[in-house]
Amino acid sequence: MSSTAASRPWTKVLYPSQSCSNAPTPDMSSLNLNWPQSLTSGTTKLPPLIQAVQDSSNAGKTRTLIICLDGTGDQFDDDNSNVVNFVACLKKDDPNQITYYQSGIGTYNEHGLKNGISAAIDMSVGSGLGIHIKDAYRFLMQNYREGDKICLFGFSRGSYTVRCLAGMLHKVGLLPAHNSAQINFAYNFYKNDSAEGWKMSREFKKTFCADVNVYFVGVWDCVASVGFIPRKLPFSKSPTNSIGFFRHAMALDEHRSKFKVCHFAHSDPASIPSNARTSRNRRYYFPKALRKSHRKLEKKDDGNKEKSNTFTMKRVLTFPQLGKEEIDQEKLEAEFEKSCQKSSPPTDVLEVWFCGGHADVGGGAVKNWERHVLARIPLRWMIRQCFECNTGILFKTSSLAETGIDIHSVWPVYKEQERPRVGPSPDHMNKYAVGGFPPIQRRPALMGIELDEEGTKLSPDDLLPEQTEDYFDALAPINDQLKLARMWWLLEFWPVKIRIQNEASDGWKKVVRLNLGSHRAVRELEPKMHWTVEQRIIEKGYKMHSNVDRNAIWKVVC
């Protein structure tokens, strides 16, 4: 639906060696550079607030409730996550928008702030998950009015908490305001995944609660487990028809054992007809730069085949109940869905892979003042998804500009981003090489949105178009925590469930073994990568180490 597929690969432009003053002037009107009109025309006055809709002339007066849940140990500090950066863009004091932010698991409990040993225990075992779910549920309960749009955002375990919250709303509904005494009962019915628990959840919902839908869920790199001992709550991973739009930015380079990506839902490729698996749509392709690394990965796997299978068999025999609980829960979830009286359209799902590790996608890997970082790419992408899906969220114009978004591409009419036809200008390339760009926080002043309080003079050449921001951000270093914080290797020697593709069929199976830094499995038949991934391949020789489905055909999107 929303993201634009690339019909041609990115081409690196070779600029002439003459100076810019002697260079011929190109016809800039024919190029898709998205220059802000405030610098070129001076006739368009930007509003202080922009509503996230595709056409501002059709913007309604809907009321929006926004819940933002941060990742493990994340809170407002000098290396903010994308959840904090997203909240910073929101209008806070408006009657049509109420925002709730929650710091990550391990930062507080029912008694207040946590630190020291108690915080470490909470972060390792995820003991505060229920508290975080119930607190967010309480916010909705006290503020929801019929017709409100509910939008949920999260990163890491906060993403998982968001999906649990959506699952709780679907399973037990939303209690009326001021019924706080019933919240614990509602949560207990939600997490009870026995046959009796599912039956009582239906009765509780019918007796006490309202049936509400979640309009939009946006998550950065949702992880599949919460805590050292993994738990799965109802509808935390499986799809429900009570979510309108689901958007997920995923990290290609994360490979820690306890950070397995949690997709929205997947069909086993073995269950898909063979003609559907092998069909080739011309819009879907495996980029040239990826084919070589993909073949190397296959050869490497073949070389370790015998050793790996021997170890896997031992682990499977040690854990004979592997997968049984998941099958039972999926069956109960399916029966619950069938018993629901309402019929809603299926969830609009878009999951896209980005360069970097966990915190390179969700933010928090580097200090806030770094000029070019990988995390801003998925931040801008998520904000754009809010516009494409007509969430109606109110953003501060100056804050959107600070993220690097071209304001005139989202207002007054939203324009889908396209892959650039040319590379950055020679001047911009030279400035990038010497670190000559002003802080991105001064971008609103460059665009004429707010006054510049800094003393140094700015010029129009200091303003980078959004696509150029993406280009340079894509070249930023990847923060691999297994290299930066060696203590993470302790968990690599603990047996965990890993997905591998069957040799005899196209299906995937779970085995229990040591992770040892293995990269994530990409099980989609048509996985989507952001265009900046391919750009990094071309510019820096980036190699993808993920375990990709052998029939996968990549689609490059914006």
TrEMBL record:
Transmembrane segments: none annotated. It comes from the Eukaryota. InterPro entries: AB_hydrolase_fold (IPR029058), Tle1-like_cat (IPR018712). Residues 63-385 form the T6SS Phospholipase effector Tle1-like catalytic domain. This is T6SS Phospholipase effector Tle1-like catalytic domain-containing protein.
